[in-house]
Amino acid sequence: MTYPIDAVRAQFPSLATTDAGQRRIYFDNAAGTQVPQQTIDRMIDFFHRFNSNTGVFNPTSVAVDAMYAEAVAALADFLGTADHGEVLIGANMTTLTYQLSRSLAHQFAPGDEIIISRMEHEGNVSPWLQMAEDVGMTVKWLEFDRESWRVEPARLELLLTDRTRLLALNYASNLTGGVNDVKALTAMAQAAGALVYVDAVQYASHRLIDVKDLGCDFLACSPYKFYGPHLGVVYGKRERLESLRAYKLRCASNDLPFRFSLGTPAFELIAGLMGTLEYFQWLAAETGCSGDRRQLFEGAYAAMGGHEDALSEQLLAGLVAMPGLTIQGASTLTHRVATFSFTHDRHPASVIARQLSDAGLYCHWGDNYAFEVAKALDLDPKEGVLRLGIGHYNTAGEVAEALTLIEGALAA
Question: Measured in whole angstroms, how far is the alpha carbon of residue 353 from the centre of its chain?
């Protein structure tokens, strides 16, 4: 079916917002996406009818408990696990990763080794560096290839030993857009006896995840990067989560997933997340898909991905043709998502970003917390890159206008 771009955009009220009459082109999606009306409605409805704490007998509290259980079940379908206890919801990916690193530290010893890829967002770096320092572990850096823009298995093979305990691995880079073969790299690390913690924040915005197919021990993502509210989600294999020492209140539940819930959850945000997951199901139906919830997620992401790929080809072709511009990532769609960063030989990223923002083209610049990636690429530490991120509600017209604006900024 034809991708229903007009119907999609109609679901996102913020897309019609203007700044003193100037339209907005949201190409800052790699930093955070807009939310559909379903998400907004769910959050408003929560405050109207369900604003209660949990665990008691009044009807509102019972309804909140049911909503939370349904949200976890929907997230389990979204991630590809049948075990609802394997889904943790928290403040954000970084907070959850710090929390789990603190628990995992009890399973490691001085002299053990941890491998961290150079492709990581700092949220999948600093928690492990600090854990390694606390425990006395050895840190090894896993370089990414500058031609494929991903971690190649041969590089990982060189680092694995019988002392390797953890691999911190990126699914998709938030700076270069490069996508790793997480399934193959996970199998290699686990064969050496290591756990694998995957940062899928950037990937979940563009492609559907299947944690059971990947086989990883942990996988983190951020709903606010895939059209939801500001939350973090981590999948963990039940046997891994049950083996961890949980930092929790003494009287809190020991059952999964509650033993890793610190304090009262942000129920209004979780209600909003339910709206986002319902939006995906709506989109699947709009594109002719049917089936159970997981099948609808698959249909929605297939439609979203196809639309984004077409826009990505258009954007990449235009950027590559601009004199003095260097794409910091693959110049084709092979093994990448719709996150694009570039530098220019004359214009600093911050200057370009300000001009584009003044013209209503939303973008980001700097290292975007991809601190190790920026160092590996020898980028200007103050300027970094100009980053554009495409979402499934963007249009070919917006891409064409963006290219015109960028050309104008670079011609100055």
Answer: 23
Do 316 and 327 contact (CB within 8 A), yes or no? yes
Asked if residues 94 and 232 have their Cβ atoms less than 8 Å apart, the reply is yes
User: How far is residue 207's CA from residue 283's CA, in Å, rounded to a whole number?
Assistant: 15
Work out the pLDDT band at 42, boundaries 50, 70, 90. very high
Asked whether residue 37 is assigned to any structural domain, the reply reads: no
Are the beta carbons of 338 and 33 closer than 8 angstroms? no
Closest CA to 363 of 332, 340, 395: 340
Section 143-157 average pLDDT: 97
Q: Which long-range contacts (CB under 8 A, 24 or more apart) does 351-355 make?
A: 351/409, 352/386, 352/406, 352/409, 352/410, 353/386, 355/405, 355/408, 355/409, 355/412
Write out the residue range of the structural domain in which residue 124 sits: 42-276
Amino acid 110 reads: P
Alpha-carbon span 307 to 343, nearest angstrom: 26
Give yes or no: residues 62 and 206 share one domain: yes
d(CA 203, CA 79): 12
Q: What are the pLDDT digits (tens) for 340-351?
A: 999 999 999 999
Rounded CA-CA distance 388/409 in Å is 15
One domain, residues 327 and 401: yes
Residue 339 has φ and ψ, to the nearest 5°, of -120, 120
CA 172 to chain centre: 8
- Residue 59: HSE in the Cβ half-sphere, 13 Å Cα cutoff: 1
Distances (CA, A) of 382 to 30, 151, 374, 376: 20, 26, 10, 15
CA dihedral 36, 41, 47, 48 (to 10 degrees): 170
Is a pLDDT exceeding 80 seen at residue 51? Answer: yes
Nearest alpha-carbon partner for 403 in 317, 307, 305, 331: 317
Task: Residue 21: count other Cβ atoms within 10 Å of its Cβ.
Answer: 5
The whole-model pTM stands at 0.97
Instruction: Specify if 268 maps to a domain.
Output: yes
Share of the chain residues as helix, strand and coil, in percent rounded to the nearest 5: 45, 15, 40
The Cα 51–Cα 21 span in angstroms is: 37
Q: How many structural domains is the chain composed of?
A: 2
DSSP SS3 for 63 = helix
CA dist., res. 340 & res. 25, Å (int): 15
